[in-house]
From TrEMBL:
One of its GO terms (molecular function) is peptidyl-proline dioxygenase activity. SMART domains: P4Hc. InterPro entries: HIF_prolyl_hydroxylases, Oxoglu/Fe-dep_dioxygenase_dom, Pro_4_hyd_alph, Pro_4_hyd_alph_FE2OG_OXY. Keywords: Dioxygenase, Iron, Metal-binding, Oxidoreductase, Vitamin C. It comes from Chitiniphilus eburneus. This is 2OG-Fe(II) oxygenase. Its cofactor is L-ascorbate. One of its GO terms (biological process) is cellular response to hypoxia.
Amino acid sequence: MTRRPRVSGFDYVVEGLADHGWALCHGFLDGAEIEALAALSRERRATFQHAGIGRAAGRALDTAIRGDDVLWLDEGDPDAQALLERLADLQATLNRSLYLGLATLECHFAAYPAGAFYKRHLDQHRGQDTRAVTVVLYLNRDWLPEHGGQLRLYTEAGPVDVQPQGGTLVVFLSDRFEHEVMPANRERLSVSGWFRRREAAVL
């Protein structure tokens, strides 16, 4: 099988983050790679756990706010190397171009059953600023607008709805944009992650 040439750089992502704080990247991985990740997500679906809100002692389950199931990915997961290597390339590019000081990546599979949603929120825990850049990669084949499930990003220019079509990557500054996941009428699969800065040392 001949793969189409992959875009080597991320100039469009760098420019989008620098100019607007967010960017879309279509074809982040090729179709075969997206299909493999979707199949892996379905294969491991029984091991997903209900996602919570908050952190540490304040963590709770509240399906009135968030209804997705998640499975965290290990950085050495051999079945996700194409994704993790591509994200590592993006991290290096953002550090080199925008001096963001991104040190680590945390990410998980997310599955939204039909009817599930995630209310408007910000991707930073109160009192912490280590999550710097949010990335969301969609794994849904043949997704149509009428299926719902859009990511609604609240930008300075107004809400922007992103279709969760397989291969589309959304990148945005974690501390800047509130966003929500709209209900869908079919299962919606993605990988969500955050490039993190190191916590400041306490002197």
